[in-house]
Amino acid sequence: MLAACAGLVLALSARSAQAQIFHFQETPVPATYSLSTHYMFYVYAKEDGPKGADAGATTRVEFRQLAASPSKTKTASAAVPQKYPSVEVSLLPFDKFWSLVNKDKFCSSFDDVRSNRAKEGGKFMINKPMGSTLETVGASIEQVPFITAGSKAPQTVSHMIKKTGIYILTFTNCGNFSDATVSGSLAVKNTYGFLPGNEIYTMKLFGWLTVIYTFIFVVMLVASLRHYKALFYIQKGIASIIFLCVLECLVTWVQYQDWNLSGERRDLYFVSSLLFYTLKYVLSWRLILLSSLGAGVVLQDLDGKTSVIFFVASTLFMIQSCMWKLLISYRYSHALESGFLMIVTLPGVIVYAGMFLWTFLALQSLIARIEEHKQDDLVKTFKNVRMVLFAGLTLSVCVLFLQVVDIASGGIFPWEYQWFSVDGAPQFTFMLVLVLMMWVWWPNENSWKYGYMVQVSQDDGAEGESTAVNTAQDDIELSKGRVPAEQIGAAEEL
Questions:
Q1: Which of 77, 301, 434, 457 has the highest Cβ tally under 10 A?
Q2: DSSP H helical ranges for 294-375
């Protein structure tokens, strides 16, 4: 619960700009003669868009009712120049940014006007080849007009985007006045909708994952209903985790669908998806640890000390997972530093490694204990569990290596395939391990015997062993619908 609250606070405190609509909400104007960048847009041109897009639609950027107003001070209102033209919002190709923008001189002067390098002084100036236009270099620039109270808001202005790529939102002030704020929004819409180009395949991924997990859940549910009297804790836990996977993928897919239609990434969907994501991993770790310690098969539950240790470890894991998932989702749109992301990743790696080590040691001890009592079937089952965990560890290390290299290098995949390292590889790995674990603990009519197999071995005395065996035999009879034979009368007096 603590981790869920932490994730909620983090998600709600982030600006809802992880979309193709950037809102200026009384955003301060940049300092005089300065430039600031705010957001990255991933755009497909009409001819490059994914299949299924609207054939009649075009990819466009819309400057929606952008307007500047003096800050709410008398000095600012009195000092604002009449028809101040120097506040501008632009969308520039990211790969050409430094060829278009001269970092030492990006504001035009009257000398530039006289030499025909600019049409007007005090404006944002980019380096265009001779004879080219803003459209040919892929740039869109709009002046932000100043309005007074009661004035009509400016109309929406749109420009077509003809080249696929990454675009960066730029905010400039090439004049000598800055005591003002800007309101309005800038929206980029692809032919298929508002979803960023680097997220379109993520939406498709979670759509297919929803279908696959639903199928797996139905299969597990049918098997569980057939043998519901023989089910024990681990099998019920696996079914619960599969259901959480269905919820996570479904909510995430709905989130992306809504995002694509509205242009906004709604906090409700995002936080719900984040909650199911973290719960899925924490409950999985708890189930793995329980099975490794014999709980749910050999024991009823974790002892007090182990429960406290697991609670602390799982809480730290949930908090770190929430932070990592939240930050990685803003990595590309806000161009977060690789070093910062590596620092955030490190605590999760340490907790993850500690959980794996704890589980393997506990599982090894359990197998040795069961082997002493010659319970071959149970030994085989737990060795299969160990094999699945080792496969999961190997795949997890590969995924971690992929993510670390991707973060450290600034991205090893083209932006169209960024979804693979962030969502694809972890989801496929988790699904494979979950299916293998489901296979190991597949429900059948003899599932209930695991508990009795261990009870028999725990009694060293002949009397204790006889009692445990008799109890097991009685339950076998009950499971078959028969009442076990019981002696009465004179036999009881002997």
A1: 434
A2: 304-329, 338-372
User: Contacts by 381-388 with C-beta closer than 8 Å and gap 24+?
Assistant: 381/440, 381/441, 381/450, 382/291, 384/440, 385/291, 385/292, 385/437, 385/440, 386/360, 388/433, 388/436, 388/437, 388/440
Q: Tell me how far apart the 2 most distant CA atoms of the chain are, in Å.
A: 124
How high is the pLDDT of residue 61? Answer: 94
- The answer, yes or no, to whether residue 40 has pLDDT greater than 80, is yes
CATH of the domain at 403: 1.20.1070
Average pLDDT (49-61) is: 78
Residues 203 and 137 in one domain: no
| Residues 6+ positions from 494 with CB-CB distance below 8 Å | none
382 and 454 housed in the same domain: yes
The continuous run of DSSP H or E covering 374 comes out as none
Query: Domains in the chain: how many in total?
Result: 2
What 8-state DSSP symbol labels residue 295?
A: B
Domain region containing 310: 198-459
- pLDDT, mean of residues 105-109: 90
Residue of higher predicted confidence among 8 and 26: 26
Count of CA atoms in the C-beta half-sphere (13 A) of 439: 9
pLDDT-wise least confident of 273-277, 321-325, 456-460: 456-460
pLDDT for res 70? 85
Please indicate, yes or no, whether residues 151 and 219 belong to a single structural domain of this protein: no
| 86 and 25 inside one domain | yes
For residue 334, what are the CA distances in angstroms to 80, 104, 153, 168, 267? 32, 24, 29, 10, 18
Clarify whether residues 273 and 168 are in a common domain. Answer: no
pTM (whole model) above 0.70: yes
In the predicted structure, residue 255 carries a pLDDT above the cut 60: yes
- What is the distance between the alpha carbons of residues 65 and 78, in angstroms, rounded to a whole number? 24
Provide the token pair at 477: 């009879």
Please state, rounded to an integer, the average pLDDT across all residues of the chain: 80
Residues 256 and 283 in one domain: yes
Answer whether 367's CB lies under 8 Å from 298's CB.
Answer: no
pLDDT band for position 235 (50/70/90)? confident
Give the total residue count for the chain.
494
For residues 124-145, average pLDDT: 87
User: Per-residue confidence at 466, pLDDT binned at 50, 70, 90?
Assistant: very low
Distance of CA 283 to the CA centre of its chain: 17
* CA distance linking residue 155 with residue 301, whole number of Å: 65
For residue 83, with 0-12 CB atoms within 10 Å meaning exposed, 13-18 middle and 19 or more buried, which class applies? Answer: exposed
